[in-house]
Amino acid sequence: MLALAATEAGEFRQTVSLQTVDIPTDPPDFLLVQVAWSDLNPVDLQKLHSRTTDFPFVSGFSGSGIVQETSDEVAFPVGASVCFLLDPTKKSGSYAQYCRVDRRAAALVPPQITLKEAASIPLAGCTAYESLRKLGLLTESTTSVQTLLIVGGAGGVGSWATRIARAWHPNLEIICTSDTSRDWCLANGASRCIPHVLQELPGGPHGSVDAILCLTEPTPTLMNAMSEVIRPYGSICLVVAGPSIRSLNLDFVFFKSVTVYTETVFSCFRTQFSHSQPSKMMAQILNWMSTGRICAPLSPCLDEIDADWTKATVPNGILERLHSGHVQGKLVMRIGDSSVAGNVHDTDFVDAR
Amino acid sequence: MLALAATEAGEFRQTVSLQTVDIPTDPPDFLLVQVAWSDLNPVDLQKLHSRTTDFPFVSGFSGSGIVQETSDEVAFPVGASVCFLLDPTKKSGSYAQYCRVDRRAAALVPPQITLKEAASIPLAGCTAYESLRKLGLLTESTTSVQTLLIVGGAGGVGSWATRIARAWHPNLEIICTSDTSRDWCLANGASRCIPHVLQELPGGPHGSVDAILCLTEPTPTLMNAMSEVIRPYGSICLVVAGPSIRSLNLDFVFFKSVTVYTETVFSCFRTQFSHSQPSKMMAQILNWMSTGRICAPLSPCLDEIDADWTKATVPNGILERLHSGHVQGKLVMRIGDSSVAGNVHDTDFVDAR
């Protein structure tokens, strides 16, 4: 099959190209899915840098497509539309024509949801879902969280989190930080958009926000800023684990009795799905979409650049856009031709508010 | 009044002595309490080292006694027995004959509980209570926590936590670490007592304990050990904020989606009691004691050494015992004479299991 594969570790421009690789075979009892759309995440590029063996390596950790082979005819018959999350320890990712998919990390896509929309759910949507659940925001009941700060609100997870939190709590004050995407954040459901945490929000011992969803590297400067603005007994959820996670200063956080959640949706694979079921989270999000409660925050970037995966690595291609770090909304990439990938709905870019 | 006061920063043997100091006057609307018993905690000694101004300084952050003056006749009449927590930013502590007490950090002691028992509650009991609540263990309903590791299980907070957790969950596996107090931990309700985390418990990606209550400094070595043994989606509650809290490695914790709680009962003072009510926690614990559900884990050390505060600083006195770091159970110190401090009940050292 064709895949966007890396032949060595490094920067995608030098290492990634369209190559013919084997269709993954192991384990045989997994679903074989013909990929329609892959989603794209900053972590895809990070994986290219950190991997040292076992090439060619195909990046991409989630997507959507059509079931081609199955050992589970009832839940996932051949021909069914599914979205899926992939084990990040495998070398076969979703930047390829076929994936082997663990059914516990897959969900059926109902007919009213496009495969393009569905591809945006498994990694970014579920990360937003799990993070908000940890922060106590996935409940109808009265919550102590009245102000949520999303650091990096314009990206894929931030856009999903904004929409999900807004759908659950119409009166929640959602503050997004973004250098460049103010209009996107506000249109997406944010109450305000600020460039930086420290300059804009009052901090100190009493803090000013009840919960923080941190979607960028928790550098010492950022950690200090978050420690200042979080209220006592508040919560911070860390979603990015670059080098900073190895040396976090929780001094001020401690004296506020703050809770620090760490969140990676990939933990489900380490635990054999005993503590987290991405299939259930995906089904929940798909259900919200089917009933009109939430609309996928697909990136408007896709209007501007070629989303065809065969041109992903060209200058201003989709990987370049991802590399820039200034994406608005959730980027996905068309892998299959239109017979597999389906047509884009008119509703793809509808404002979710 | 007499107080065990420090005249300068430093080690207690050089700085603390029995001195005459003014009865605290501010703020005037607080309760004035004649102290019967002060509790003793490692943080008392740390305060002596870190304080740089405003001497004489009286350490001690909680205790019990008799109300002498009150602006709140209904809840706290003159003559009432109370236990109380003190604001750690003030220079007047509980190693003294009188304290000014915020009524929001005080609770009435019912007649069947001795003032000695009551003095063990406000700091150590409430810290244990809040920590266990954060870890999800203060609920009758089914909890996902089947194994609780208490690092430093023999000390005051650890002994309280063991008894409270055992009272709520008779079948919970409670593992305590202690170098020297194996028998105390087991008698106190622990399922097992181990000397160190890393050598004794299986770790790795799947971990082996559901929750950890860390009551010693989270050094890099200990943090690494806890990261190994905690199961994915598990919880760690940090209660000690020495230098290590400024540089915590959450790398492995991150990839397990672990939650890190930070707990200091003193946060209530920073927040004007808006998020935490020590008076309610104390009342809850006193109620459990009144109904026989829990018995205060008073230290058997008190049998061996002189608990009279006027001899607290002599060799092998109670401060020396506290300084050793190897206390079993909750240390308290008699301040008043027997007419104030009351008689010791025969039930003080009853096994709580």
How would you summarize the topology of this molecule?
2 copies of one chain form a homodimer.
Chain A: E1 2-6, H1 12-15, E2 16-20, E3 31-39, H2 42-50, E4 57-58, E5 62-69, E6 81-85, E7 98-101, E8 106-108, H3 115-119, H4 121-134, E9 147-151, H5 156-168, E10 173-177, H6 182-188, E11 192-194, H7 197-200, E12 209-214, H8 220-229, E13 230-238, H9 251-255, E14 259-262, H10 267-270, H11 278-290, H12 301-304, H13 318-324, E15 332-334, H14 338-341
Parallel strand pairs in A: 9-10, 9-12, 10-11, 12-13, 13-14
Antiparallel strand pairs in A: 1-2, 1-4, 3-5, 3-7, 3-15, 5-6, 6-8
Helix pairs in contact in A: 4-5, 4-11
Radius of gyration of chain A: 20 Å
Order of helices and strands of chain A, N to C? EHEEHEEEEEHHEHEHEHEHEHEHHHHEH
Name given to the CATH homologous superfamily of the largest domain in chain A = Medium-chain alcohol dehydrogenases, catalytic domain
Question: Per DSSP, what share of the residues of chain A sits in E-state strands of 2 or more residues?
Answer: 15-25%
Gap from first CA to last CA of chain A: 40 Å
CATH class wording of the largest domain in chain A: Alpha Beta
Main interface pair?
A: A-B, 34 and 34 residues
